[in-house]
Amino acid sequence: MINSLLKAFAVTASIALALGFCSAASAHGEVDEVLLAEFEQHLDDFETEIDALVAAAENIASSYATNAIAEGAVADFIEQWEAVEVHVVIENKATIAYPGIWQRIFALQGAVDGKQSTADVDAAAKRLTAA
């Protein structure tokens, strides 16, 4: 069973990596090919975007802890994540990290929507910011 799971993972990962190298396709339509080709020149911008995302995730956790979380806060975070340029670069250049980020976003959403403990929401936010 483990061998078949590992084999399935290896095949899926190989396909994903091959598609990532063959095309700059994105789930969000057209991709800025120049941005992808010259992404190294935008690292400072990406750092600023990531800092804002981290602050937004931390704000979700702290707002939740004080029962002041806004309706749709995680949905707003998802919109913010999808709007930043670093998202497209990670999706196309760091494909191995991309699913993990989404998994952590959805874990945070599940913790908030499921009205889990403050500690659980805080832990989910910390895992997201680590991703």
Helix content: over 70%
The main pleated sheet reads as: none
Assign the structural class, choosing from mainly alpha, mainly beta, alpha/beta, alpha+beta, or little secondary structure: mainly alpha
Kindly state the number of beta strands. Answer: 0
Ends: how far apart?
29 Å
Mean pLDDT: 83
Alpha plus pi helix count:
7
Shape: elongated
Low-confidence stretches at least 5 residues in length (pLDDT < 50)?
1-26
> What is the element string, with H for helices and E for strands?
HHHHHHH
What is the alpha-carbon Rg in Å? 17 Å
Strand content: under 5%
Description:
The chain has 131 residues and is mostly helical. Helices cover 75% and strands 0% of the residues. It has helices at 2-22, 33-37, 43-65, 73-83, 85-93, 98-113, 118-130. The radius of gyration is 17 Å and the shape is elongated. Mean pLDDT is 83; it is low at 1-26.
Question: What is the structure about, briefly put?
Answer:
The protein has helices spanning 2-22, 33-37, 43-65, 73-83, 85-93, 98-113, 118-130. Helix content is 75%, strand content 0%.
